[in-house]
Specification:
A 12-stranded mixed beta sheet has the order 1-2-3-4-5-12-6-11-10-9-8-7, with helices on both faces. Helix 8 links the parallel strand 10 and strand 11. Helix 5 packs across helix 7 and helix 8 packs across helix 9. The protein contains 9 helices and 12 strands. Helix content is 36%, strand content 28%.
């Protein structure tokens, strides 16, 4: 595909993006789960009249010469203002990097499908006189045949009384995940959540907790709202002192089973450097779909 065989359609309006890209997202709802769910959440925030963030936020649709959608991406993360790219022609990813550079928009990194993200990160780094480095190798999984797991205690939905603890755990998740993968904690790519937003997700039935036999909360599993029939699980977190008791396996299996029971497909991401999470999700019945990458652009 030549550089003139596509065009980039950039918008800051999530509803406008969904109007043009919905069919493309629905065609492969597991692969597009992050873009679809995050964009739907942004639309809901706009409808509630919440202020838009003061950092760059946009969505891009790549169209070929026949106006068919051949790629999508977005930039919604608050720190370090990373982009997220799904499959698109590599020339389009390079063109996007150049467009952002021309308008003076610095990009600190990119997540997404390996080819698109790498092409974008390398061109962004070249234009900035810096380097593109791999921060994480990620893997997307989809649940096949569910294998139930058991652990001491029980799974229950979170309540309003759990919001403060769940928020604290959620905002510490990135450091926990880095520790388990053998990396130093790095705020890059961390997703913070407010108590108000977590309370909304609790009310929607998206947050699940595991209680041990003594009634102590020892684990949290979150399931995003379904988009095109697919619900993405994550974060999944167990504080260090409660690990190695099977809570994560039992909770994720339990939440996954509930999603299947109401007709949804279930998917999740793992850090390839974390052998524990990759092993337990495979044992539950999750199967690899595609490998992705998180790249940092260093000036």
């Amino acid at each position: 595909m030549t550089a003139t065989a596509f065009r980039l359609e950039l918008t800051t309006d999530p509803a406008a993006f969904l109007a043009g890209a919905a069919d493309h997202l629905a065609a492969d709802p597991v692969l597009t789960t992050v873009v679809a769910s995050v964009t739907a959440r942004a639309v809901a925030e706009d409808e509630r009249g919440e202020p838009r963030p003061d950092h760059p936020r946009w969505w891009v649709t790549v169209r070929d010469g026949s106006e068919a959608v051949v790629g999508v991406g977005m930039r919604t993360a608050p720190y370090p203002h990373q982009a997220y790219l799904l499959p698109m022609p590599e020339e389009a990813a390079v063109a996007l990097a150049r467009l952002l550079h021309e308008r003076g928009e610095a990009v600190g990194g990119v997540n997404g499908v390996l080819t698109s993200a790498t092409a974008f990160a390398e061109e962004t780094a070249r234009l900035a006189g810096g380097t593109a480095e791999v921060h994480e190798h990620m893997r997307l999984w989809e649940l096949g045949a569910l294998v139930p797991h058991e652990a001491p205690g029980r799974l229950r939905p979170a309540t309003v009384a759990d919001v403060a603890l769940a928020t604290e755990w959620w905002n510490g998740f990135h450091a926990m995940a880095a520790e388990m993968a053998g990396r130093a904690p790095d705020a890059r790519g961390a997703e913070a959540i407010s108590e108000a937003e977590l309370a909304r997700r609790v009310e929607a039935g998206q947050v699940w907790l595991w209680e041990d036999d003594g009634g102590e909360v020892v684990h949290l599993t979150h399931a995003n709202a379904p988009a095109h029939g697919v619900a993405r699980i994550g974060p999944v977190l167990t504080p260090r002192e409660h690990r190695r008791r099977g809570y994560a396996s039992a909770a994720v299996a339990g939440v996954s089973g509930r999603l299947l029971a109401v007709g949804h497909r279930a998917c999740l991401f793992t850090d390839q450097a974390n052998p524990t999470s990759n092993r337990i999700y495979a044992a539950i019945g999750y199967q690899p779909v595609v490998d992705m990458v998180n790249l940092i652009v260093r000036p």
